[in-house]
Write a structure and sequence with these properties.
By secondary structure, the chain is of the alpha/beta class. About 50% of the residues lie in helices and about 15% in strands. The protein has 13 helices and eight strands. A six-stranded parallel beta sheet has the order 4-3-8-7-5-6, with helices on both faces. Strands 1-2 form a two-stranded antiparallel sheet. Helix 2 packs across helix 3 and helix 4 (about 70-75) packs parallel to helix 13 (about 225-240). About 35% of the residues are buried. The model has no long low-confidence stretch (mean pLDDT about 90).
């Protein structure tokens, strides 16, 4: 059982990446349906104003602290999360795990050209990885053909990169149709895998400035970034007033 820290009425995983992957490996081995939320401050703040979305997140088996703001916020309120667990790093670890254990992976999301390039690059890097299939993210939610295609592929791991909040909503709506599936919302990770967007160098990552690197690359993200200071201010106020965040 993984340790957790409660914040914003959500149980965040407070364990190492090694322990998390081990837990997911165990659940895959037992064919258990699993939903992993890769939560950053944008996801948390959206959940504060959308009860249905909040319910989707809290129904997940694991909520991991993907953003550094989540980790900083936990320390401000005096209930620290020890390690940031990024969705991108988890995804790479799962590629290794799936290769070793012969689990299959399905890719859902991004533009058509991007998802094709993503699958090509993943296939080149992990030639023994069993790729169950892929589909771009620009489909009509009412179109059942995509869902049926994924069901027919019977993947063990389904990576969903439809953006926030659509990816979590899609997973919550459809996960029960896949008794053994491991679902993870991976945001813009396919853009990184395809080389469309560069991930911050290790130096920036170690300084916890990955968010700044992304902002420099894509200044149009500035509005989305404003949730970070708002979240941290709420954490400071909660600490000062002795309230739960």
């Amino acid at each position: 059982m993984l340790k957790t820290v409660e914040m914003m009425r959500m149980p965040f995983v407070n364990s190492s990446m090694e322990e998390l992957v081990g837990e997911l490996d165990d659940r895959l081995g037992r064919s258990l349906n699993t939903f992993v939320v890769t939560a950053n401050t944008e996801i948390i703040m959206h959940a504060r104003k959308d009860r249905a979305y909040f319910d989707n997140l809290t129904a997940a088996e694991f909520v991991i602290p993907d953003g550094i703001g989540v980790v900083i916020g936990s320390k401000i309120i005096g209930n620290p999360i020890e390690e940031r667990l990024t969705g991108f790093d988890l995804m790479i670890r799962l590629f290794h795990l799936c290769t070793d254990k012969d689990y299959s992976v399905y890719f859902l999301g991004a533009e058509s050209a991007v998802i094709e390039e993503t699958v090509d690059r993943v296939d080149n890097r992990f030639p023994s990885l069993k790729i169950a299939g892929y589909h771009h993210g620009y489909f009509d939610p009412e179109d059942q053909s995509v869902l049926k295609e994924i069901q027919a592929a019977e993947p063990d791991v389904i990576l969903v990169g439809l953006g926030v909040p659509r990816q979590e909503e899609w997973i919550a709506q459809h996960r029960e149709l896949f008794p053994k599936g491991l679902f993870i919302g991976v945001g813009g990770s396919f853009d990184v895998l395809a080389g469309k967007v560069k991930r911050a160098p290790i130096f920036w990552q170690k300084l916890n400035l990955e968010w700044l690197y992304r902002l420099i690359q894509r200044p149009s993200r500035w509005k989305r970034m404003t949730v970070l200071p708002v979240f941290l201010i709420k954490a400071i106020m909660a600490r000062m007033l002795g309230r739960k965040l």
